[in-house]
Specification:
The protein has 261 residues and is of the alpha/beta class. It has helices at residues 20-30, 43-55, 70-84, 107-133, 157-163, 166-180, 202-210, 221-232; strands spanning 9-13, 34-39, 60-64, 89-92, 139-144, 184-191, 240-243. 42% of the residues lie in helices and 15% in strands. It has a seven-stranded parallel β-sheet with strand order 3-2-1-4-5-6-7, sandwiched between helices. The protein starts with 8 loop residues before the first strand and ends in an 18-residue tail after the last strand.
Length: 261
């Protein structure tokens, strides 16, 4: 465990702009973590968050990388380790999301989704996980999937194909990394309608709330709370946790499809 002189360090991919990853970063910063923000193109938004976290007394740096590029990923992890001296947690919220009917989906669409959502997750997890294996304290990785891979809806074939690989990736890396260092754990969160896009209509919002068993939605802090629980519980690895208000098991159809985090 990190001491008061050595706060735990968390890298959150896709946390530059105001989406769920950004909420996770702020949540962990409030609980004493030093934060490494990752962004691809949202430099200004990432810098704003860096300044906000620093203003409250926290440590935070922003790092740019294309997660689908292994050289970018390796450089980012190297920079994080050089800056903070350790890496205790990785949360992979970076993703891409495109819609289109099956008739219009092209090979390039599937490949792009795979490169960011699947390969990008793998590259970050492998590099960070192997670094964690070299640390006596180990570390924790939390990947991010999607509840709807269990019940896919229309017009998202490329996205669901890519996200559907995340549970297998999670279990595989839990075995691989845990074999190298038993203190390295890998788990997955499958979010439901946890954060509404700004252009979500009132009708869409009502439908998304109705689609849950808990009858509430738009609660990104629920993902952050789950992330912290998975980081702090030393006896949980290789699991996929729905954070979806019961959406996975509740078959009522929503009139609006949830956009991913």
């Amino acid at each position: 465990m990190a001491t008061s002189q050595q706060p735990r360090v968390a890298l959150i991919t896709g946390s530059g702009r105001r989406r769920v990853g950004n909420v996770v970063a702020t949540f962990l910063a409030e609980r004493g973590f030093s934060i490494a923000l990752h962004y691809h193109s949202s430099a200004a938004a990432a810098q704003t968050t860096v300044e906000e976290i620093r203003a409250t007394g926290g440590e935070c740096e922003a790092y740019q990388a294309n997660v689908a590029n292994s050289h970018d990923v390796d450089a980012m992890i190297d920079q994080v380790l050089a800056r903070f001296g350790r890496l205790d947690a990785l949360v992979t919220t970076a993703s891409t999301w495109d819609t289109g009917s099956l008739e219009t989906v092209q090979a390039e669409d599937v490949l792009r989704s795979f490169q960011v959502n699947t390969l990008g997750t793998f590259l970050c997890c492998r590099r960070a996980g192997l670094a964690m294996c070299e640390q006596p304290q180990g570390g924790v990785i939390v990947t991010v999937g999607d509840w709807a891979i269990e019940r896919p809806y229309l017009d998202h074939a490329a996205y669901f194909i890519a996200k559907g690989a995340i549970p297998t990736l999670t279990r595989t890396l839990a075995v691989e990394l845990g074999h190298r260092n038993p203190s390295v754990r890998v788990n997955c969160i499958h979010p439901g309608p946890v954060m509404f896009p700004l252009d979500t209509s009132d009708t869409e919002r009502q439908a998304l709330v109705a689609s849950t068993l808990t009858k509430n939605a738009n609660c990104p802090e629920s993902v952050a709370q789950a992330v912290l629980a998975l980081i702090d519980n030393p006896f949980v690895t290789g699991v996929c946790l729905p954070v979806d208000g019961g959406r996975t098991i509740f078959a009522q159809e929503s009139t609006s499809r949830q956009r991913p985090i």
